[in-house]
Amino acid sequence: MVKESHELLRRRMVANQIRSRGIRDERLLAAMADIPRHRFLPPHLADRAYDDGPLPIGEGQTISQPFIVAQMTEALKLTGEEKVLEIGTGSGYQTAILCRLAREVVTVERVFSLCVRAKELLGELGVENVRFRVGDGTMGVPEAAPFDRIIVTAAAPEVPPPLFEQLAEGGIMVIPLGGRWEQEMVRVRKEGGMAKKDFLGGCRFVPLIGQCGFTD
Q: For 70-111, how does the pLDDT look when each residue is reduced to its tens digit (9 = 90+)?
């Protein structure tokens, strides 16, 4: 009965919060209708998993609003063949969606306990095309570069140079840019070694902490 209720809530979330706001990628919509978002939250918040907003996951971090997850993912224009770098594993929910839509995902989290929890959960869900790293996300994972796509799920004052360097020519990065409290979602394309930016709208994320981000 609980499982059916969660499935109903997921379908309603996709219809009312995501498809109705213009998300059209059918593979993405199917993934979000299938992946159990409530599993990625602390037990006392599981019943709110499909609410239209972000929720805390501990360690001062959040799981993003479902629409924001969908918006960022659709902006990556994934076809299923890409190697993706995710900065900010967090709960692992965005990671699970990326793994469904891309060939391979490398995900970086600076908080050890969050990385361990996400790795365990994705293992339980049978997700295999992912590698986990603990460290400064602003420095990326140079030994695994280049990446076809990069997604940054925390706010940066500017595009971290190491991440842009690790983005493949013709690749896409999606990142919130701005101050600590308000940002703009930006899609960055690497064309001829230069950054071409598209602005996708206002947003609000926790700060990206690191050598090329915000300081504590």
A: 999 999 999 999 999 999 999 999 999 999 999 999 999 999
Give catalytic status of residue 20 as yes or no.
Answer: no
Which of 3.40.50.2300, 3.30.450.40, 3.40.50.1970, 3.40.50.150 would CATH assign to domain 59-203?
Answer: 3.40.50.150
d(CA 167, CA 156): 17
6 pLDDT more than 60: yes
Residue type present at position 94: Q
Q: Exactly one of 5, 20, 64, 113 is catalytic; which is it?
A: 64
Residue 1 pLDDT exceeds 50: no
Domain boundaries, the chain: 59-203
Hey, how many other C-beta atoms are within 10 angstroms of the C-beta on 104?
17
With cut-offs at 50, 70 and 90, classify the pLDDT of residue 39: very high
Per-residue pLDDT, averaged over 186-204, amounts to 96
Q: Which residues of 140-159 are buried (b: 16+ CB within 10 A; e: fewer)?
A: bbeeebebbbbbbbbbbeeb
| Residue length of the chain | 216
